[in-house]
Design a protein that fits this description.
With about 230 residues, the chain is mainly α. Helices cover about 75% and strands about 0% of the residues. The termini are far apart.
Length: about 230
Amino acid sequence: MPPREAIVEALMRLAAEQPWNDIEIGDIAREAGVSLAEFRDCYPSKGAVLGGFARMIDKQVLEGAGDDLDDEPTRERLFDVLMRRLDAMDPYKPALRRIAVALRGDPLSLAALNQVALNSQRFMLASAGISTEGPLGRVKLQGVVIAFARVMDVWLDDNDPALARTMAALDREIRNGERFMERAEDVRRLTAPFRALAHSLTEGGRRRRRRDRRDDRNEDEGNPLGGDPAAAI
C-alpha cells in the first residue's frame, strides 16, 4: 500500500478506537508503518490526512461512475452520486462518528474542512453532470456542501442496513436545493437590468479614472518637477 494511503487508513483505524484529540502524528506514523520523515513528506498535519481521506473517497466514487444514469433527471443523478459517496465512507463510519463529535466545536477546523468539502463536491456535481460555473456556481456548490453535511449527521446515526432515514434525508435536501436554486435564478434574472446598469456606471468611472491618470502623466512629462508649477521655484 502506498504511504499516503497507509497513513489515511492508519488514522481512520486510530480514530475509530480513541478520541480525535488524543491521536498524535507519531501514533499515526507507527500505525501506518512509516517514519515521521515519510509522514511529513506525504502530509503536513493530522488534519491534512483528513483531506487525503476525502480525496481517496472522491477517487472511489469517480472511478465507480457509469453512464447508466445519463438519461435520468438531474435529481436522480445527484442522489446516486451522493449515495455512492456514503457507501464508500461506510467502512470508516465509526471513525467519522468520533471525528464529527470532536470537530463540531472547532470553528477553525470546520472552516478548513469546508474547503476540503467544496473541492470534493465540485467533482461530485461534475460526475452528476451539474455545472458549478457561472454567477450561481459558488452558491450551488456551498449549498451542496451544507446539504450533504446535514445528510451525514443522519447517516452517522442510521444503523439500518437499508439506510431508509438517510435516503429520505438526502432526497429532501436535494428537493430543497432545487427550490432554492430556482428562486435564486429568478432573482438573478429580475436583477439583471440593475446589474447591467451598475456595470455600465462602474466601467464609466474606470474609464474616467484612466483618462485622468493619462492627463496627470502628460502634465508631469512637461514639468520634470511634477504637476505643481510652483515646485520649480
